[in-house]
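User: Show me a protein chain along with its predicted structure.
Assistant: Here is one chain, sequence first, then structure tokens.
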Amino acid sequence: MTFEIRRATARDIKEILPVWGELAGFHASLDPAFTPSSEWPREYGAYLRSLMSREDALALVAKDGTEIIGYAVGRVTTLPPFFEHRFRGYIHDVYVREEFRRRGLGRRLVEQILAWFRRRGVTMVELTVAANNRDAIPFWERLGFFVYMHQMKQELRDSGLGTGD
């Protein structure tokens, strides 16, 4: 089977949304912090549309014939000048539908984003992975990524006390 990977266009957004919905649902099952809002189709569609119009972002789709079966999003971020590696790539999303996994599509999506980053002079690429995503962590490690920072969270609940401010 031959799969096509190409730059996403605004015409692809309608087909990307159900794929992102699968990813979002999976992440929400890992941690409620990832639960999308009820307006996610409209909001994520607008987000993708804005990324597609930027020079510092790349959205790719993987297709099987006419069906989008995966996608990836990367973006170049710029840190303040007091950092040596000011231009960093950030991989936002990489997802391949379950029935199409283990065929190298995820790797090909990532490789194309990494090549795009290199052409832009990016020397460091970052991403976040849910700590309990047992399939994704080995995938990223096989691609040469490693943990260099731990991201932490705390959920604040109203204690009933005033802030005193």
